[in-house]
Amino acid sequence: MGLFSKKTSQQEPEAKAKVAVNSKPVVQAKPTRVEADPVKAEALKHKMKAKAHRVLVRPLVTEKTANLAVVNQYAFEVKPNVNKITIAEVISALYGVNVLKVRTMIVRGKSVRYGRTQGQRKIWKKALVTLKAGEKIDTFAGI
Fold first, then answer.
1. With the C-alpha atoms ordered 65, 68, 69, 75, is the resulting torsion angle positive or negative?
2. I want to staple 41 with a disulfide (CB 3.0 to 4.6 A). Which of 22, 34, 60, 114 is the partner?
């Protein structure tokens, strides 16, 4: 232990001098992947569109989600293993909208009975996507 304390005491003045010189770190904003190069941005959009079937299961079209569309929120069923960042990238590439926020939740399966047989519905993941004001997704296009 005495050996280690001697080394730290010898190195302390040098460390204090470095801290005093570099007291204010310089923070530079990094450009995002999309802002860096338009060719790369188009390639990323194409990649996300191809990835959409691995992320999104279906849009949730119910009365409740139709009421949420008034405040620029849309609901989707997504695969259980995807994260919010991937969901936002895929939806913005697929529908051409700006995603502000993604909220996810795990929907637990309900217990069901068919006669004497008991079971449980599947556990699935729901994503609520908030869009920029003035943008919308036409989820009723296929109906």
1. negative
2. 34
Q: Structure pTM?
A: 0.67
85 token code pair: 């960042």
Q: Return the domain boundaries, the chain.
A: 31-131
Which ranges in 56-83 belong to alpha helices (H)? 63-68
Q: How far is the C-alpha of 14 from the C-alpha of 41, rounded, in Å?
A: 46
Strand partners, 38: none
Alpha-carbon distance of 50 to 33, in angstroms, equals 18
Q: Specify the fold of 31-131.
A: Alpha-Beta Plaits (3.30.70)
User: Mind listing the pLDDT tens digit of every residue in the chain (143 residues)?
Assistant: 555 555 555 555 555 555 555 555 555 555 554 556 777 778 877 777 888 888 999 999 999 998 998 999 999 999 999 999 999 999 998 998 999 999 999 999 999 999 999 999 999 999 999 999 999 888 755 44
